[in-house]
Amino acid sequence: MQQLTIARLTTATIYRIFFLGLLFGCVPIFLVLGILGYFDLATLHWNNRPVTGLRAVIAGPFIGLLFALVGTAFFGSAAAVGLWLRSKFLPLDIQYVEKQGFDA
């Protein structure tokens, strides 16, 4: 594991990290909820209306995408401000593992 010291991250990098993390975390969860909604084991809601059946399977990933976008806007902004404030006092140390056999 290698370590990298940086002065600060750009806001685009912070938003990208948050969006990808929320996207790959939320969309599968909402897809599972949509599949459960297809079998009437769970109910998704959109505009205070229940979404069940095949519509739930289709709507689930889109609700997850919307959740990821809104979460990125709020949590990414809070993290960007917090990391910007921290960069005024201390550098940031990042540990990373270099990928083996990567030919670009």
Rounded radius of gyration (Å): 19 Å
What's the number of extended β-strand segments? 4
Q: Give the termini separation.
A: 21 Å
Share of helical residues? 55-70%
Shape: elongated
Strand fraction equals 15-25%
Order of helices and strands: EHEEHE
Stretches where pLDDT is under 50 for at least 5 consecutive residues are none
Mean pLDDT: 92
Helical segment count:
2
Largest sheet composition: 2 strands, antiparallel
Q: Give the strand order of the largest sheet, numbering strands 1, 2, ... along the chain.
A: 1-4
- Structural classification: alpha+beta
Structural summary, described in words:
The protein has 104 residues and is of the alpha+beta class. The chain contains two helices and four strands. The radius of gyration is 19 Å and the shape is elongated.
Short description:
This protein is α+β, with helices and mostly antiparallel strands.
